[in-house]
Amino acid sequence: MPSLGQSIISNPDEFEIAWKKEPDYLSAEVADKLDEADPLNDTPNLFERRKTKAMAAHSFSYPLKETLENIKKMHMLQANLLHDVHFDKHPDFKDSGHCFDRDRYKPALLSAQELLGFEYECEFNFTQNGMTDNLGKLMSTFLKVSKREWENDKRKIVMLGTEFNADQTMAHSTMRGVIADGQRSEIKEASSTKSEDEILKIPHGENGVYDTQTIIDFIKSNADKTKMICLPDVVFNTLQRLELNKIFDATRDVIEKNKIIVLLDLAHGFANRKIDLKSMPVHGAVMCGYKHLPGGYDGTPVGFVVKRSLDLKNEFHPQQGWKANDSKKVWDHISGFNRDIAFTEGAVAFRTSNPMTLALLPAQTSLTTFGKIGWTKLFNKSECLTRYLLAQLQEHLVKTNQIEIITPLDPKQRGAGIALKMKNGLDVRAIEHKLKERGFEVDTRPPVMRVTAHYAHTTFADVHQFVQTFKLVVDKMLKPKVYESYKNWGMFALGATLVAGLCAVALGSSKSTSNTNTTPFKHP
């Protein structure tokens, strides 16, 4: 069995066994001991950490120091090299050929491949566009409905009933375009169709959690009329991780038989846990760089995946610009057009214009830096931190009936994020404010609070202090409620005493004026 420290980065099960053997294993002293044993305990120093501790690591966190250094470096390179910064004289980015092809930066590309599990390098491309922009690009390319499909009612998009608004809005807007195309072509079935009729929503269970078998059954029962499936890896509001392997193992045949396009939203899954896209019947995926990817700025873009197996030459036709041409050949045709030098496979076939290097640097710096440390080590530590967080929450807030954890506890059905609800009537927004005053940031989507212990910058001591502070805040906010309860009971008791007194007076008066009632009154 590895040592306690080694188990943090190699085996969460063995870590949990060893950690819980410690006397008073939820104490501050043990938290400090875990941090001291952690082989990756220096990674927080890579960030610009300030007084407030980020426990909402899935929604912006500390910037990475190296990113700022790379931005400064790029700034000075352009000042010194001017136009040559694009080409082979570029001294720092030669491993991608030149800055001109910065969206193919090899070290970051290989790191993304480890995280996402795409098979071929051409299947991924970095982009300065946001995640929803990229989702729209893929949806509009792949959602094409023929006259026969209109007649057979095969044009639906399947999504979760509670999918994030950005995805639902993009699905509706893309579908409206399909409907408009049908109406322009005078297809009868399109004349009165609304986008609301074309989005099929998978129902959820209690607390917004989805049942794997329900998803499988829904996909199978609607396969003959489905054109596209769009699912998340991690559900944004409950932080449940869908069992995509089980779902796609059970539905692969109907997806392939009915030629359904499958897209994934990896907003809360990217750099949270690994995913193996090559093993799934998935055609494309989009992601962003300001949630779990360490050090992302507001709106940090990453890129998108398109499987090489899709026919982008004859069946689907992505919009292309000069960057969709082979960079080594395009200059010979700079004043014309040559179809033969354009990419026709994977995400690179979707390239259009020059991306801004500065826009790509945050995600690429993070991917390169943490790829060198090792994603497997980082995610093992993440699981250890998450189990430690859950144990603290369960001991101090679940057992006292203050919170309910709605994220599934099974590691296969969650990542690092935990969503919870208050059970005592307290407003999560008020708790968020009180926690912020005490140096901890969380994320709320009323009635849900979302918390995360991030593998790159959260320590075990941070988690211990956070839960203790959370409990303190809840206890203090409940005290006025307890006082109010006692006050209400006191008013009731006073009223009851007055009524009893009046009754006694009335009975005494009756006794003095009656000659027949000689039995003294006894209070029941």
Main sheet specs: 7 strands, mixed
Query: Can you write the helix and strand succession as a string?
Result: HHHEHHEHHEHHEHEHEEEHHEEHEEEH
Q: In percent, how helical is the residue content?
A: 40-55%
CA-CA gap between termini: 71 Å
DSSP strand content = 5-15%
Number of strands: 13
The shape, in one word, is globular
Our Rg estimate from Cα atoms comes to: 30 Å
Give the low-confidence spans: 510-524
Given the helix and strand composition, which structural class is it? Answer: alpha/beta
Q: What CATH architecture of the domain at 131-298 would you give?
A: 3-Layer(aba) Sandwich
By CATH, the topology of the domain at 131-298 is: Aspartate Aminotransferase, domain 2
**Average pLDDT across residues?**
91
Oligomer: single chain
Q: What spatial order of strands do you see in the largest sheet? A: 2-8-7-6-5-3-4
CATH superfamily annotation of the domain at 131-298: Type I PLP-dependent aspartate aminotransferase-like (Major domain)
Total of DSSP H or I helical runs spanning 4+ residues: 15
Tell me the name of the CATH class of the domain at 131-298: Alpha Beta
Q: Which descriptors apply to this entry?
A:
524 residues, alpha/beta, Aspartate Aminotransferase, domain 1, Aspartate Aminotransferase, domain 2, 7-stranded mixed β-sheet, 4-stranded antiparallel β-sheet, 15 helices, 13 strands, 11% strand
Write the layout of secondary structure elements.
Layout: H1 4-10, H2 12-20, H3 28-37, E1 53-54, H4 65-81, H5 106-116, E2 124-126, H6 131-142, H7 147-151, E3 156-160, H8 165-184, H9 195-198, E4 199-202, H10 212-221, E5 226-232, H11 244-257, E6 261-265, E7 284-288, E8 301-306, H12 357-373, H13 375-398, E9 403-405, E10 417-422, H14 428-437, E11 440-441, E12 443-445, E13 448-452, H15 460-513
Parallel strand pairs: 1-11, 3-4, 3-5, 5-6, 6-7
Antiparallel strand pairs: 2-8, 7-8, 9-10, 10-13, 12-13
